[in-house]
Structure formats: C-alpha cells, structure tokens
Amino acid sequence: MTLWLGLRSVVFMAGFFVVTGVIGIIAPLLSLLGKPRMTYKFLQQWGNINLFWLRVTCGIKGQVRGKENLDLSTPTIVLSNHQSTWETMYLLAKMPAMSWVIKQELLNLPLFGWGMQQSSPIAIDRKAGSSAMKQIQTNGKIRLDEGNWVCIFPEGTRVSPDKKVRFKLGGAKLAVHSGYPVLPVAHNAGECWPRNGLIKTPGTITVSIGPRIEVTGKTAEQVNAEVEAWITEERTKLPPVR
Q1: The domain spanning residue 99 has which CATH number?
Q2: What is the pLDDT of residues 22-58, one digit of tens each?
Q3: Does 196 map to a domain?
Q4: The predicted structure's pLDDT at residue 48
Q5: Is 144 inside any structural domain?
Q6: Where do the TM regions start and end (predicted)?
Q7: What is this structure's pTM?
Q8: CA dihedral 187, 191, 197, 198 (to 10 degrees)
Q9: Which residues of 152-186 are buried (b: 16+ CB within 10 A; e: fewer)?
Q10: pLDDT digits 0-9 by tens, 203-224
C-alpha cells in the first residue's frame, strides 16, 4: 500500500512541477500586457489544475462549508491555519484576487517565484522584526485599498495537525491598522498532505470559512485571540478526512 501511495504521489509531483513551470514562464509574459486581473486569473489555474490532478492521481478531494460567510463586496483579510501546500492551491483557486504575505526567499525560487511575483505579494524578511510588521501594515493597506484581498498564515509556517503554535500578530495588526474585516479559515489538509512528507493519502479535506470578524473598537491582540480561538475550535469540529 505504501509503495502504491508513493508511486501515485510521484506521478502527482511530476505533473505539479510541469504545471508550475508552464505557469511560472507564461504569467510574467502576460503581466507585460498591463492587465493584472487577467494575469491573476491565469495564476488561479495553477491551483485549479493541480487540485484536479491531485484528485486524479492521489484521490484527495476538497469540500467547503461556510460559503455564506464569503462577502465579496468588501476587501477582506483572510487568516488561515497552515498545514501543507494544499491550502495555498485551494485559496488561490477559489478565493477572490489576493495579495499573499510570503517569505521573501520564495520569490527567488525558479518558476514558482516568477509566478508568485505576478500576484502583488507582500514579501517580507521574517528576521526583520518590527520592520517586517510595518511592511505588512503599509503594503497590506495599499493592496486592500486597491480592492485586493490579503491572505496571511498567522502561524508563520506549516504546522503538523497534531501540533499547535501561537498565532503571530501581523494579520490582526493589519486589520486594526486598515479597518478592514478578517475572515478566519480552518482546514485539515495536513491529514492528507503532510508538511514534510512525499506520500499523500486519499481523503476529503474540509475547508471551513468562518463568520467575518469586524475590527472596529478592538485591539490587535483581541482580534488575534478571536481568530485563533475560532480556528482552534473549528478544527476540532471538522469531519475526518477518511
């Protein structure tokens, strides 16, 4: 069984790298046309195609609940737990156009980084401390004012489903600084696609979109605690992947 799952995972990764390469080459060329929305829609196909290929090769599906909480009329800050690459593909493919808060070094990756550069990311040096926080607030508000959503993984890195880390304040501080609401998202992607593992196991990943959190009159610490509490509790309510 492990050998079979390994072979399926290798087949998926082969297709994943091909798709990433094609998107990474074409997206920068499209951006030269000066149509960022069209370029972003093309980038979304990276997520859609890989989600489809993952379902075909590895038997991993996705389902969503809480769609009624998705209000497209207002730019919003998405704060999600982070367990694998799967949620990056899903959120890119299924959510409105977003600027992603990412590690600066990701933009240096061949092909993948070239594609990410076209999504107006907020690339930070995590070692920069307060300077990185200020960058998130300044550039994040600019993106939101332009009508883009912003996506942040407040855990700061991929975390195994059986682990728990404290949420960082960057997303909450951006929300309070900008006045834009927060949308918490919880999922169990790491049960099928482990953070440092090649083998991907079949199952149905659940993404849960929570009620929008307004930030007026709240501190960043209060917003962060509210988001962390909701995601932590919601994760315990998600159905098993198998």
Answers
A1: 3.40.1130
A2: 988 888 888 888 777 888 898 999 999 999 999 999 9
A3: yes
A4: 97
A5: yes
A6: 12-33
A7: 0.92
A8: -100
A9: bbbbbebbebeeeeebbbbbbbbbbbbebbbbbbb
A10: 999 999 999 999 999 999 999 9
Paired tokens of 137: 């607030």
Structure tokens at 209: 């979109």
CA 181, CA 76: separation in Å to the nearest integer? 5
Closest by Cα among 188, 181, 127 to 162: 188
- Give the gyration radius of the chain's Cα atoms: 17
In a domain, 109, yes or no: yes
Domain housing 171:
2-237
How many distinct structural domains can be found in the chain? 1
Q: Alpha carbon 186 to chain centroid distance?
A: 11
Residue 63 · residue 86 · CB < 8 Å: no
- Is the distance from CB of 174 to CB of 60 less than 8 angstroms? no
Listed in sequence order, the residues at least 6 apart from 23 whose beta carbon sits closer than 8 Å to its beta carbon are 42, 43, 45, 46, 111, 115
- DSSP sequence for 20-75: HHHHHHHHHHHHTTT-HHHHHHHHHHHHHHHHHHHHHHH-EEEEEE-GGG--TTS-
Residue of 203, 212, 130, 210 lying closest to 173 (CA atoms)? 130
Q: Does 147 fall in a domain?
A: yes
